[in-house]
Amino acid sequence: xxxxxxxxxxxxxxxxxxxxxxxxxxxxxxxxxxxxxxxxxxxxxxxxxxxxxxxxxxxxxxxxxxxxxxxxxxxxxxxxxxxxxxxxxxxxxxxxxxxxxxxxxxxxxxxxxxxxxxxxxxxxxxxxxxxxxxxxxxxxxxxxxxxxxxxxxxxxxxxxxxxxxxxxxxxxxxxxxxxxxxxxxxxxxxxxxxxxxxxxxxxxxxxxxxxxxxxxxxxxxxxxxxxxxxxxxxxxxxxxxxxxxxxxxxxxxxxxxxxxxxxxxxxxxxxxxxxxxxxxxxxxxxxxxxxxxxxxxxxxxxxxxxxxxxxxxxxxxxxxxxxxxxxxxxxxxxxxxxxxxxxxxxxxxxxxxxxxxxxxxxxxxxxxxxxxxxxxxxxxxxxxxxxxxxxx
Length: 392
Prior knowledge:
Layout: H1 5-14, E1 22-25, H2 28-38, E2 43-47, E3 60-63, H3 66-76, E4 80-81, E5 91-92, E6 96-100, E7 104-115, E8 120-126, H4 133-139, E9 144-149, H5 157-166, H6 173-189, E10 192-203, E11 208-210, E12 213-217, H7 226-229, H8 239-246, E13 250-253, E14 258-262, H9 265-277, E15 284-287, H10 294-304, E16 312-319, H11 324-337, E17 344-350, H12 353-361, E18 367-369, H13 373-389
Parallel strand pairs: 14-16, 16-17, 17-18
Antiparallel strand pairs: 1-6, 2-3, 2-6, 4-5, 7-8, 7-10, 8-9, 10-11, 10-12, 13-15
């Protein structure tokens, strides 16, 4: 789960990390009012969407009068911002953050992320802040310093001093140590997966400030993070993914033509690889999980079919906790109730597989059964390509 920049900064302030003064607004008139109330001579207007690279796309602009701030906000609000992370469709801007511009002496990059390989939190820092860290990693890997945190002892002072020295903040070691330790405590307390401050700055007065911030959280831990869940903005998410979550389904939209309904994340990944192997592209990742009822399968079909690019649906189930007869009943129910007009390919294996195949055979529906994953993927790709070639 991701949250907006202004929400991330609010959480940082709760952990006594300094951020610029500002307020999120929804109208141009409010933007001008906020600039007047903040005081100063320059202000920044920042589009609030769940994507990086906003500055390059025109989503971050500076003005030197409240009237100019209102004008900038008016241009941003309601517009569609296209960045490297939004894809070509972009994201609509429904709110902007107005802040008083900071007097910057130096810019840095600082983040904490979960490293899957080492199974530890890692601190990533660089003296080259305010730019895409991926570009820095490609052009000058030595400019990035990493520090792995032992979960048994936590982030230690000597590690903070090492990071400060590596990025040129040796003269601010004490204040930097306080900053990063507060960020680390927030990271642990709120079950973060990523906390990025880019840039954090040293002001002309020597203060360390989180100028921009981004956070994402572990979806599996949200059950104990009620305050974080309240920050979720459904308008920033694919409606199909939001609906799937409500039905206990894990859904991620992709850009292919073969809809996938699978149980288990590993099998879903293997199914997508098999589709690609046969020259197709998956339209989604959808994991129905364990104990999928016929109603759950029917909901999965409905969500997959909301994507107009789907030309065939591949149901690939290896039943353990699940039962093939449940899955087959759900497939038949969905096909009848929803009047599905795209080919449906079904591969069943595992618990009650013979009963499941019998239900499919006796349904009287034109369901294509497959012997194994490779056979299912080949048939699904062939069916999708045949539908693609049919003129509208």
